[in-house]
Amino acid sequence: MNHVRRRPPGRQFVGLLLYCFDVNVRSSLVLVLGLVGAGGIGLLINQSIKSFQFDAMATQILVVLVLIVLVDQLSSFIRRRLEV
Fold first, then answer.
1. Phi-psi region for residue 23, left (φ > 0), alpha (ψ -120 to 50) or beta?
2. 71, 20 in Cβ contact below 8 A?
3. Are the C-beta atoms of 39 and 48 separated by less than 8 Å?
4. Is 15 helix (H, G, I), strand (E, B) or coil?
5. Do the Cβ atoms of 78 and 18 come closer than 8 Å?
6. Model pLDDT, residue 56
7. 45, 33 in Cβ contact below 8 A?
8. Contact residues for 29 (Cβ-Cβ < 8 A; gap 6+)
C-alpha cells in the first residue's frame, strides 16, 4: 500500500494562524506608516520629517523594522518546531 504522510489538522491550523498573524502585522505596519492617513507611529514619523527631526524618524523606522523582524523570526521558529 502507498501511504501518504499527512500533517495533523492542528498543525495546519497553527500554520494558517501564523500566516494570518504575519499578514496582519505587515498590513498594520503599512497603515501605521501613514500611507492611508492612519495615526500611530506613522503620524510620529510624518511629524518628525516635517520638523526635520531625522534622528527621531530613524529611531521610529528602526522600531518598525525590528518589530517586523521579530514577528518573522518568531513565526519561523514556531513553524520549524511544528515540522519536527
1. alpha
2. no
3. no
4. helix
5. yes
6. 92
7. yes
8. 64, 67, 68
- And the C-alpha cell for 25? 502585522
State the Cα–Cα distance between residues 28 and 11, nearest whole angstrom: 25
Identity of the residue numbered 34: G
User: What CA–CA distance (Å, rounded) separates 32 from 21?
Assistant: 16
d(Cα 27, Cα 7) in Å, to the nearest integer?
Answer: 29
The residues of the chain scoring below 70 in pLDDT are 1-9, 29-39, 84
> Strand, coil or helix: what is 36?
coil
Q: Directed axis angle between helix 54-83 and helix 41-50, to 10°?
A: 150
Q: Sign of the CA dihedral 13, 19, 20, 22? A: positive
Question: Residue 34 in contact with residue 61, Cβ under 8 Å?
Answer: no
Q: Which residues are within 8 A (CB) of 72 and not within 5 positions of it... i.e. 6 or more apart?
A: 22
